[in-house]
Design goal:
The chain is an alpha+beta fold. 55% of the residues lie in helices and 17% in strands. The radius of gyration is 31 Å and the shape is rod-shaped. It starts with a helix and ends with a strand.
Length: 69
């Protein structure tokens, strides 16, 4: 009976150790994959709007820039 308890305890301890090793290896791998997906985001170009200051003056213009966040 004592042998069965010791072997069961060792089995559970080795199982926890294997799970801990897998978690310790997978967390950095998953973190690297998530960081790599953040780097692949496309850059959205800024929009430039040219608007006349007055309807009678077409040569003078005010440039409004907008950059997306």
């Amino acid at each position: 009976m004592k042998k069965d308890a010791i072997s069961t305890g060792l089995f559970i301890a080795i199982g926890f150790l294997c799970v801990a090793i897998v978690i310790a290896v997978l967390i950095p791998v998953v973190r690297d994959v998530i960081d790599a997906t953040d780097d692949n985001k496309p850059t959205i170009p800024g929009v430039t709007l040219i608007q006349p200051l007055d309807s009678s003056q077409t040569a003078t213009a005010r440039v409004l820039t907008h950059t997306s966040v």
